[in-house]
User: Fold this.
Amino acid sequence: QVQLVESGGGLVQAGGSLRLSCAASGRTFSTSTVGWFRQAPGKEREFVAGFSLLPFYADSVKGRFTISRDNAKKTVYLQMNGLKPEDTAVYYCAAKDDFRASSEYKYWGQGTQVTVSS
Assistant:
């Protein structure tokens, strides 16, 4: 079992930056894909960024967001630069049981609110 706890959300002006953190506890973290998702009001949850052996991103955040992981600390980060009002959402950290692209994100955090004002 894996527990995930996000932190770092808040209110920021357009063009600003935030850094989200996700601390994991439980089973082995270093051999699992981790990712960030977000859900805006009235919209479906969408993929933002993931990290298996390499990072990968949704087109909407490519060049602005950076995902990284510290396996020793069992923590994954999402550095968000050049924030836009459309980035406003609840951001969720998630993890798989392995690195396979076909496997599902099985573990989820409780979410952290990011609000970008125009």
The radius of gyration is 13 Å. The chain has a mean pLDDT of 95. The chain is about 0% helix and 50% strand.
